[in-house]
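Exercise 7b. Backbone tokens:
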């Protein structure tokens, strides 16, 4: 008996039955075998020590995303082993690999202290030094219940999770053992604990079992693991940089926004400077929407529950909506989580001819979602936020052009705000969906064609579309390489059907329009938070709340400083004069800490010569710059990229 393996280069190779992934990697080369952490056959991953079947083979190495996932999952097991060894009265829940790291949840009757974490990290190092092999074995459900009888969360998993979710087979549950530690797991894992060469525990948190606030609260430990100490150090540096850029820290420091406890969780107060940035963002959104052919509409903050029943939100989205409010003698109303049903009502308010389509409606609207407290994260995940929501109603033959236009709009918007690296997810038809198959095919092909035309790298997320249509999610990379999901373009077959909206074609037949949803910022709050972290608070000139700070050397220069402020303001530049009783050095430091793009210092010579001292962020001061030249330079720096195109 033999197995046949097809390598990535298309070549075919025969091996004896029982050959392992490590055997194959060694046959290819010693260096590959040393870097290998697992293999994949026809997309199914196997431990290096496990016999493999025939099929298309790929060796998974440690410096790949798939390899790092295996490293981190193994690190989670090692951490759980260390915790149970140090705290034998504890029990453990789940511990997945996540982006750039891993975590594990435990019930120990309290939270973990910094001293606990240091102790756990040292114990993990001992386990790594022991180089314990990871051994895979299979269990029946009855066997698993016996093995984990003292760990109630594992028992619940065995009783409620289909074995296929643990192993990929409906007949067995797989588990892994290293030394005396055993955990349920699909795998694969590193060959041994000694292969974990670079790890760090990063923080602790509380978490509810299965994310449900009605379940026990557990203690969570987060960590990160990498293929080398150098990769770990680079990641830790990025984490330090991310902490310095945290929008929740920068917002109050720069007097942009606050979230006082009296307001409630997940809600934000915009201060004047933050409000100015928001106004600029919203003005630019409206400008681009108008340029791309959208009409502006407005809708109320709440509506009868009947509206959300018709739209399907009460059936599919009720848990994210706030409870009903009784009005009008018992009629239930709901605050809106999105504006789309109301825009459908605007379309439906009168008849439409095929000649009118596409009809494009846009609204910058406040919406409210009942997010769980555990997922709220400053402006990135809030309960009250603002969507730059748009909805297009078009004919089938217009879908291609409409989606291409939306993607062009999205890229223009993102590039204007300084983002240059884009990726996308194309989410396709799920197993349960509505709408004609022909429409799904048209929409998916049109979305993919639009991505290809824009030359955006993308991955196809098979079956991840909504039940009512496929979508594109556009991701950006920020200044420190983090990936953020930003804009969305989504095709919808459900709402036109649910609300029975139509248009009349050239033959006087009534046809159903196709609906396209799009949010270019996603939410204004989240987009602002990403921008704040991307720029570390140092907004580009066009977006800065204060573009120029005037600093008089002495009180006798105050009037001239204020006249310069008025001169800049006459050309639309945002300037302020610091007239406080402080030294010039203190005023300059204050302006620099506020991350003002331009600092203009004025003294006796400037008053006499109608000039300013001109200093741009990151540059040395230029003395005696003519005021008109200063205005010209500032206006050039304050222009919006797409306005210059």
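Sequence design result:
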């Amino acid at each position: 008996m033999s197995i046949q393996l097809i390598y990535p280069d298309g070549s075919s190779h025969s091996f004896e039955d029982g050959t392992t992934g490590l055997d194959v990697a060694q046959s290819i080369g010693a260096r590959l075998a040393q870097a290998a952490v697992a293999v994949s056959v026809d997309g199914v991953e196997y431990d290096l020590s496990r016999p493999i079947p025939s099929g298309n083979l790929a060796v998974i190495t440690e410096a790949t995303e798939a390899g790092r996932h295996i490293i981190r999952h193994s690190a989670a097991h090692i951490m759980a082993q260390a915790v149970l060894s140090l705290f034998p009265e504890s029990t453990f829940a789940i511990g997945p690999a996540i982006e750039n790291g891993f975590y594990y949840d435990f019930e120990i009757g309290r939270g973990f202290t910094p001293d606990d974490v240091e102790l756990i990290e040292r114990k993990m190092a001992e386990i790594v030094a022991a180089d314990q092999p990871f051994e895979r074995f299979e269990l029946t459900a009855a066997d698993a219940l016996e093995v984990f009888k003292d760990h109630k969360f594992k028992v619940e998993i065995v009783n409620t999770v289909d074995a296929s979710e643990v192993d990929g087979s409906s007949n067995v549950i797989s588990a892994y053992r290293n030394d005396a530690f055993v955990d349920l797991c699909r795998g694969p894992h590193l060959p041994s604990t000694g292969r974990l060469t670079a790890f760090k525990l990063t923080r602790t948190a509380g978490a509810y079992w299965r994310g449900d606030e009605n379940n026990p609260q557990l203690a969570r430990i987060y960590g990160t693991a990498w293929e080398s100490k150098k990769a770990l150090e680079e990641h830790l540096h990025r984490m330090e940089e991310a902490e310095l850029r945290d929008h929740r820290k920068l917002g109050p420091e720069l007097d942009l926004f606050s979230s006082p406890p009296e307001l409630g969780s997940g809600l934000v107060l915009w201060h004047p400077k933050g409000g100015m940035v928001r106004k600029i963002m919203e003005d630019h959104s409206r400008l681009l929407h108008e340029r791309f052919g959208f009409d502006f509409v407005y809708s109320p903050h709440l509506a009868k529950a009947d509206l959300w029943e018709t739209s399907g939100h009460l059936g599919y989205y009720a848990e994210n909506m706030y409870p009903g409010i009784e009005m009008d003698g018992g009629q239930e109303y709901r605050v809106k989580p999105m504006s789309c049903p109301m825009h459908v009502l605007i379309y439906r308010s009168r008849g439409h001819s095929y000649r009118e389509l596409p009809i494009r409606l846009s609204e910058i609207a406040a919406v409210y979602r009942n997010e769980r407290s555990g997922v709220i994260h400053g402006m990135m995940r809030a309960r009250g936020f603002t969507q730059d929501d748009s909805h297009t109603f078009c004919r089938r033959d217009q879908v291609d052009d409409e989606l291409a236009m939306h993607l062009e709009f999205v890229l223009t918007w993102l590039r204007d705000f300084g983002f240059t690296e884009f990726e996308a997810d194309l989410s396709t038809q799920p197993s349960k969906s509505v709408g004609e198959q022909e429409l799904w095919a048209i929409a998916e092909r049109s979305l993919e064609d639009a991505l290809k035309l824009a030359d955006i790298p993308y991955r196809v997320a098979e079956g991840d579309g909504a039940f009512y249509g496929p979508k594109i999610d556009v991701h950006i990379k920020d200044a420190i390489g983090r990936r953020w999901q930003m804009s969305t373009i989504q095709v919808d077959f459900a709402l036109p059907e649910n609300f029975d909206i139509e248009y009349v074609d050239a033959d006087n037949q009534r046809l159903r329009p196709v609906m396209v949803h799009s949010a270019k910022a996603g939410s204004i709050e989240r987009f602002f938070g990403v921008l704040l972290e991307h720029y570390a608070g140092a907004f580009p000139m066009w977006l800065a709340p204060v573009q120029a700070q005037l600093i008089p050397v002495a009180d006798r220069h105050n009037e001239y400083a204020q006249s310069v402020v008025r001169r800049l303001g006459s050309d639309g530049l945002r300037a302020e004069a610091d007239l406080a009783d402080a030294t010039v050095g203190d005023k300059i430091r204050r302006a620099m800490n506020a991350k003002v793009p331009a600092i203009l210092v004025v003294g006796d010579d400037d008053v006499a010569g109608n000039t300013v001292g001109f200093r741009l962020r990151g540059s040395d001061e230029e003395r005696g710059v003519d005021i008109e030249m200063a205005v010209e330079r500032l206006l050039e720096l304050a222009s919006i990229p797409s306005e210059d195109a």
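Instructor comment: Residues 163-169 have pLDDT under 50 and may be disordered. The longest helix spans residues 65-86.
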